[in-house]
Amino acid sequence: MIVALIIACEIGFWVLLAAGLAFRYLLRMPRTGLALLLCEPVLEVVLLVVTAWDLKNGAEPDWTHGLAALYIGYTVGHGHRTVKWLDGHAAHRLDGRPLVRPPRYGLARARHETKVWLGTLTAALVATALLQLAIWYVGDPGRVTSLESWRSTAWRAAGIHGLIALTYWLWPKKTPPGHPETAQDARTGREKSVR
Q1: Which of 139, 154, 161, 179 is most buried (most C-beta within 10 Å)?
Q2: What is the dihedral angle through the alpha carbons of 111, 117, 121, 127, rounded to the nearest 10 degrees?
Q3: Mean of the per-residue pLDDT values for the chain?
Q4: DSSP 139
Q5: pTM of this prediction?
Q6: Which pairs count as long-range contacts for 122-125, CB under 8 Å and 24+ apart, including other chains?
Q7: DSSP-assigned beta bridge partners for residue 193
Q8: CB 37 within 8 A of CB 17
Q9: How far is CA 100 from CA 112, 133, 150, in A?
């Protein structure tokens, strides 16, 4: 039941997103589109309530409950960024606005990748908190090993993503000569080419 609900939430996420963007840009009803986009978190609340209800009714804690916690954590950590990214592409394609792309070179790219990693870190923190609440809720150490293993899964993912983000700081990709992309020097306020 939980896996089917996770799939339904994911489908619902994309349906609400498509509907929200269609109302904003195709039908020129930005308030209705925004209202639909703001309904996205309701899906995660439903998943959280149903998962807790499933455990309350005596369901054996298993991988599906852990997956639900990771899904909710991912949505909290990366959902807003995903919606913003797709909104930018829809505004570009359907409304003719300029497309804002993330930086591709140098320290600006490293900062961008670090912000994305912070979303993964947030996801791991949220998933860990939900899993810990579920462990306390079940209250039987013999029945929660599956939930405990999902905590380590969340932190492994955050660790791997952190190492990838770190590589952008250690080996920043150099800006090709004559490329218009520049980075702001935070200490002096001068614009300089990233080389």
Answers
A1: 154
A2: 150
A3: 88
A4: -
A5: 0.83
A6: 122/73, 122/76, 122/77, 123/70, 123/73, 123/74, 123/76, 123/77, 123/78, 123/154, 123/157, 123/158, 124/73, 124/77, 124/154, 124/155, 124/157, 124/158, 125/73
A7: 182
A8: yes
A9: 13, 39, 36
The single residue listed with the structure tokens 């996205």 is 40
Q: What are the helix (H) ranges across the chain? A: 2-21, 30-38, 40-56, 63-95, 106-138, 145-170
Q: Which amino acid is at 99?
A: L
High-pLDDT (> 90) share of the chain, %:
65
Identify the burial level of 127 via C-beta atoms within 10 angstroms of its C-beta, where 0-12 means exposed, 13-18 middle and 19 or more buried.
buried
pLDDT reported for residue 28: 93
Point out which residues pair with 183 in neighbouring strands.
Answer: 192
Beta bridge partners of 184: 191
Cβ–Cβ < 8 Å for 172, 108: no
Cα angle 65, 144, 128; round to 5? 60
Three-state DSSP string of 45-97: HHHHHHHHHHHHCCCCCCHHHHHHHHHHHHHHHHHHHHHHHHHHHHHHHHHCC
User: What is the pLDDT, as a whole number, of residue 181?
Assistant: 64
